[in-house]
Amino acid sequence: xxxxxxxxxxxxxxxxxxxxxxxxxxxxxxxxxxxxxxxxxxxxxxxxxxxxxxxxxxxxxxxxxxxxxxxxxxxxxxxxxxxxxxxxxxxxxxxxxxxxxxxxxxxxxxxxxxxxxxxxxxxxxxxxxxxxxxxxxxxxxxxxxxxxxxxxxxxxxxxxxxxxxxxxxxxxxxxxxxxxxxxxxxxxxxxxxxxxxxxxxxxxxxxxxxxxxxxxxxxxxxxxxxxxxxxxxxxxxxxxxxxxxxxxxxxxxxxxxxxxxxxxxxxxxxxxxxxxxxxxxxxxxxxxxxxxxxxxxxxxxxxxxxxxxxxxxxxxxxxxxxxxxxxxxxxxxxxxxxxxxxxxxxxxxxxxxxxxxxxxxxxxxxxxxxxxxxxxxxxxxxxxxxxxxxxxxxxxxx
Length: 398
Known about the structure:
CATH class of the largest domain: Alpha Beta
Number of strands: 16
Number of domains: 2
Helix content: 25-40%
Strand content: 25-35%
CATH topology of the largest domain: Aminopeptidase
Structural class: alpha/beta
Shape: elongated
Distance between the termini: 16 Å
Radius of gyration: 23 Å
């Protein structure tokens, strides 16, 4: 592809300011999962303005855009997630969230801005490629059921030969990417536990079954579940993210709710944790005369990166940002990522994009002060454009 690298670089540079501004607009105007209507409308307007074929997708506020090649060939997809989190932003920046209690604290604003950037750069490019590029803007990555699972069921990747995506990584410095072949993320499973007691007056606890009291006993016991497995050397994490109970100070509650996640790397550990949770909850609830309902929601599979696609990404990165800027990810992340649903139907690769500013302290994903070094956005745009072009060109020759 003579001239491809310099042209993609030049086009990315000329569009860099807009890519950053798109990210900032999305950051100012975050929307929660399955509510991304304004986000979708804004992106659709931009894509249509630039002459890119785009249509509403089959699920929620999803968008599907396409670029057609000059000859028949494979179809490669790139995905960006769209939803924000219920987090009150604490950053003091000009693009701070204008939606109180809602924030792009996981970088999805960056993912969307880069995907738009790739579409615009490739639309403007004179590079000829075979096949087709599909751009998937996906709602609701952060909740179950997730947007990816529903888009997959709706057939969005049925004719796709490979799929790529980014996830920003606040632990990797800007200018670098992280790559790993095989398992990249943990299997993630949400659970929803409701403890049911008998309400009554706060002055007469002997006439009640205090669901809040039972819930605190269960809550403490749950944190011991992972450590008491029979396979303690296989990584696993159980986290409680939400508790709720009671409605008034002088009323003993008849309901206490606990929500959280289980993250494992193997099926055996997940089964052990689930079974032990059932036994622990049943034992404590029964000892206080309470009832319970414990549900395990549909698990998100592990992301398993295709070796060939990671090799393609590595080769492109070596010639553009240099091998010194490729971080080999030695450990599996215990985070969940619903990009894995696409990989149940098609080979794919999730690439970590460094967004850490110099030697600044790491601001973790989902934190109220999460932010990125925006220099990563043009780099990510040009690199992804080259990766998909390389895949199509090389696949077209085979």
